[in-house]
């Protein structure tokens, strides 16, 4: 068996850097621990070597065709802000992150978080959407329309 | 007799202990029990874990006061009243909530990336109906060269160590479920032609592969769950902005064909990928679905409406949902043997 690495390499994930590339070819670097907050990305990391032979690499490049550069920037920022903690332990740093988002980005980020299977980010966005729409009528159809309306108007 | 009473009866004398820990008796008692819904939550502020039984006539709450600050405890799955618990260090523990017994398993082979959500490192507790033995199956990544392989090791409750049972071509994209003595998992995130279900029989410790049934529309997010003691496939179609629908297909007892059982419409802006797989449960004639970390929804098949309604007000803590049944399944085999 050629590579001595096998089990020990699998047990040292922190050493590797992950390069996430958006649909419009913008690149963002993060650590493997941060990237694993998306199981979709994690799965691609796991199978990276299928297409790349057995050369040991310290940088893994993954392209996500469903996410554009502006949105991926925010996904990566969330991963870095949130990484050290448990999934649903939110604090002020997360609050600052999500309150600093433009409404248009908020919407795209929700779609991206859903696509990338990130429960923690979804929870945070849901909370923020609840904050923005507080005091409005409770029916769900109206909720969605008002969110879209407030995203593209400046009445909030 | 209620399980908790039986648990204390074990201490009366040796012959009672013998009867009450006999696997056959334990299993017969289990079959008569009512299946309930359990919510498992971590209350960090008070450094404790809570296990709340929902819609129980007696309003049971089991509080586990365990030091939590240094561990993030979660439940991998539950089986016959036993909870298979894990933490971020990769350690595994089995707990019988009714009797309070627990046993810490020997450290597994692979511990990196242990979390509530990881499809690359997960444990599944199961039961072998013919031998009445409980086993924990652990799935973890194989070596880099052959990366579509998943390795697995099995620990038989009462045994000394994990057995490295081998590897298999077909890595999971999601954590598996246990149904009737077998562990099932999916190999693709979406419902596409190449998706299939891998199945590990806990008795024989052999693998098998099952293709998904053909469908009118492909690309939806799919996951596995157990309903009414059968393996079910849950498919979520639609986009994030909505509307989204959820279809539940059930595998028949011969393991051959799938029946479409339920069609449910989801509330707006609900994610497709969430706790839905193993935490969609049948209880009290309704289907209970956890859609966000603090919200439980409920679908009533007899109501005539396709909608999921919020089942109760938002909870204080994030939780996970599991089927639960009060049981006296013994865990401390060494202790029992000592007494006998």
Protein topology:
The complex is a heterodimer of chains A (156) and B (340).
Chain A: H1 6-10, E1 17-21, E2 27-31, H2 32-35, H3 39-46, E3 59-63, H4 69-82, H5 92-99, H6 103-115, H7 119-132, H8 140-152
Parallel strand pairs in A: 1-3
Antiparallel strand pairs in A: 1-2
Helix pairs in contact in A: 4-6, 6-7
Chain B: H1 3-9, H2 14-20, H3 23-31, E1 36-43, E2 48-54, E3 61-64, E4 74-79, E5 82-86, E6 92-96, E7 102-104, E8 122-128, E9 133-141, E10 149-156, E11 163-169, E12 177-179, E13 182-186, E14 196-201, E15 207-211, E16 221-227, E17 230-237, E18 244-251, E19 258-266, E20 280-283, E21 286-292, E22 295-299, E23 309-310, E24 319-324, H4 333-339
Antiparallel strand pairs in B: 1-2, 1-24, 2-3, 4-5, 5-6, 6-7, 8-9, 9-10, 10-11, 12-13, 13-14, 14-15, 16-17, 17-18, 18-19, 20-21, 21-22, 22-23
How would you briefly describe this protein structure?
The complex is a heterodimer of chains A (about 160) and B (about 350). Chain A has one domain: Potassium Channel Kv1.1, Chain A, CATH 3.30.710. Helices cover about 50% and strands about 10% of the residues of chain A.
Domains counted in the coordinates of chain A: how many? 1
Instruction: Show unreliable segments of chain B.
Output: none
Largest pleated sheet of chain A: 3 strands, mixed
Main sheet: strands, sense, barrel of chain B? 4 strands, antiparallel
Q: In CATH's first tier, which class of chain A applies?
A: Alpha Beta
Strand content of chain B: 35-45%
Annotation field: number of helices of chain B: 4
Q: What oligomeric assembly is this protein in? A: heterodimer
Terminus-to-terminus distance of chain B: 24 Å
CATH topology of chain A: Potassium Channel Kv1.1, Chain A
């Amino acid at each position: 068996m050629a590579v001595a690495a096998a089990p020990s390499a699998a047990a040292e994930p922190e050493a590797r850097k992950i390069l996430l590339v958006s649909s419009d070819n913008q690149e963002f670097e993060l650590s493997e621990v941060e990237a694993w907050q998306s199981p979709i990305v994690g799965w691609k990391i796991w199978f990276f070597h299928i297409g790349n032979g057995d050369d040991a690499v310290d940088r893994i490049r993954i392209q996500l065709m469903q996410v554009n550069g502006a949105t991926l920037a925010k996904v990566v920022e969330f991963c870095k802000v949130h990484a050290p903690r448990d999934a649903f332990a939110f604090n002020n740093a997360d609050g600052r992150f999500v309150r600093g988002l433009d409404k248009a980005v908020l919407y795209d980020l929700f779609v991206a978080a859903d696509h990338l299977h990130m429960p923690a980010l979804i929870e945070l966005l849901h909370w923020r959407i609840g904050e923005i729409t507080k005091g409005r009528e409770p029916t769900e159809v109206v909720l969605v329309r008002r969110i879209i309306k407030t995203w593209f108007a400046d009445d909030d | 007799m209620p399980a908790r009473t039986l648990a204390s009866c074990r201490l009366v004398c040796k012959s009672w202990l013998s009867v009450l820990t006999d696997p056959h008796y334990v299993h017969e008692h289990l079959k008569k029990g009512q299946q309930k819904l359990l919510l498992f939550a971590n209350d960090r502020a008070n450094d404790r874990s809570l296990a709340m039984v929902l819609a129980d006539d007696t309003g049971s709450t089991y509080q586990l006061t365990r030091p939590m600050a240094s561990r993030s405890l979660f439940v991998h799955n539950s089986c016959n009243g036993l909870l298979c618990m894990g933490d971020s260090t990769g350690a595994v523990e089995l707990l019988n909530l009714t009797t309070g017994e627990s046993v810490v398993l020997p450290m597994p082979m692979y511990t990196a990336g242990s979390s509530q959500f990881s499809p690359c490192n997960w444990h599944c507790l199961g039961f072998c109906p013919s031998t009445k033995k409980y086993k924990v199956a652990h799935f973890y990544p194989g070596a880099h060269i052959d990366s579509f392989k998943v390795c697995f090791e099995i620990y038989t409750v009462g045994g000394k160590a994990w057995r490295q049972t081998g590897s298999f071509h077909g890595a999971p994209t999601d954590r598996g479920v246990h149904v009737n003595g077998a562990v099932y998992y999916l190999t693709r995130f979406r419902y596409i032609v190449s998706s299939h279900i891998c199945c590990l029989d806990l008795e024989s410790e052999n693998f098998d592969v099952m293709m998904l049934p053909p469908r009118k529309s492909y690309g939806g997010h799919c996951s596995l769950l157990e309903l009414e003691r059968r393996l079910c496939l849950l498919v979520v179609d639609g986009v994030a902005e909505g509307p989204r629908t959820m279809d539940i297909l059930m595998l028949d007892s011969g393991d051959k064909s799938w029946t479409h059982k339920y069609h449910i419409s989801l509330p707006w802006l609900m994610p497709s990928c969430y706790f839905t797989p193993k935490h969609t449960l049948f209880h009290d004639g309704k289907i209970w679905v956890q859609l966000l970390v603090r919200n439980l929804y409920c679908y009533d098949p007899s109501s005539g409406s396709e909608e999921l309604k919020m089942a109760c007000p938002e909870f204080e803590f994030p939780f996970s949902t599991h089927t639960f049944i009060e049981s006296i399944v013994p865990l401390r085999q060494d202790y029992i043997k000592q007494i006998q």
